[in-house]
């Protein structure tokens, strides 16, 4: 059992985890106040601890098709957990699904679908210009090794999720 000092309420609680062989950040929830945080363990000791940063969703949830909303919400959860690649994958999936439901060609790559949205007045030029700066919307192929995420910068994930949300807000309001 590993004791964790809660970053929110300051009380100590025990987690069932002993070791984290992958040495990745993992989520734990304080049993006293319920707040989430991310910890890293080595040999039964906490080596790092960060607060979970919730992403405030500004979509009108009731207007967004449920399958798209659930992918987008997963993207934001992954972002809060610092699972950044997973976050980008889910954000792209939500966006691609939205594009095709609105009428873009499902065989086009995402960046072309976004251009289709702009050409058909579904999104404004400001959002379109922001989207075109996102490499992760364009340069990935059909195979996992072509997903563009190996040379991926950490701070890109949040930009991608935010632009994805802006487009979804324009499409479903
Ligand atoms: Zn707490």
Task: Please tell me about this protein's structure.
With 173 residues, the chain is an alpha+beta fold. It folds into 2 domains: 2-51, no CATH class; 61-171. The protein is 39% helix and 15% strand. The chain has 5 helices and 5 strands. The protein has helices at 66-80, 84-102, 110-119, 125-132, 156-171; strands at residues 2-5, 12-15, 26-29, 36-42, 45-51. The strands form 2 sheets. Strands 3-4-5 form a 3-stranded antiparallel beta sheet, with no helix packed on it. It has a two-stranded antiparallel ribbon with strand order 1-2. A hairpin with a 6-residue loop joins strand 3 and strand 4 (36-42). Helix 4 (125-132) runs antiparallel to helix 5. Zinc ion binds next to loops.
Helix content: 25-40%
**How does the overall form come out from the CA principal axes?**
elongated
Order of helices and strands: EEEEEHHHHH
Give the strand tally: 5
Hetero ligands = zinc ion
Mean pLDDT: 88
Cα separation of the termini: 48 Å
How would a textbook summarize the main sheet? 3 strands, antiparallel
Strand content range: 15-25%
Q: Could you tell me the radius of gyration in angstroms?
A: 19 Å
Instruction: Count structural domains.
Output: 2
Which strand order does the major sheet show?
A: 3-4-5
Describe the secondary structure blueprint for this structure.
Blueprint: E1 2-5, E2 12-15, E3 26-29, E4 36-42, E5 45-51, H1 66-80, H2 84-102, H3 110-119, H4 125-132, H5 156-171
Antiparallel strand pairs: 1-2, 3-4, 4-5
The protein binds zinc ion.
């Amino acid at each position: 059992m590993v004791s964790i000092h809660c970053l929110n309420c300051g009380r100590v609680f025990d987690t069932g985890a002993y070791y984290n062989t992958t040495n990745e950040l993992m989520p734990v929830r304080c049993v006293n106040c319920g707040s989430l945080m991310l910890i890293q363990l080595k040999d039964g000791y906490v080596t790092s601890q960060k607060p979970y940063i919730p992403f405030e969703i500004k979509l009108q949830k009731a207007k967004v098709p449920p399958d798209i909303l659930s992918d987008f919400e997963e993207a934001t959860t992954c972002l809060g957990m610092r699972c950044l690649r997973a976050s980008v994958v889910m954000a792209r999936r939500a966006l691609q699904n939205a594009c095709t439901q609105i009428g873009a060609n499902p065989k086009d790559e995402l960046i072309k679908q976004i251009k289709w949205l702009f050409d058909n007045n579904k999104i404004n030029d400001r959002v379109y210009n922001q989207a075109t700066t996102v490499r992760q919307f364009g340069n990935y192929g059909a195979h996992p090794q072509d997903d563009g995420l190996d040379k991926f910068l950490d701070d890109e994930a949040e930009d991608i999720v935010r632009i994805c949300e802006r487009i979804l807000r324009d499409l479903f309001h």
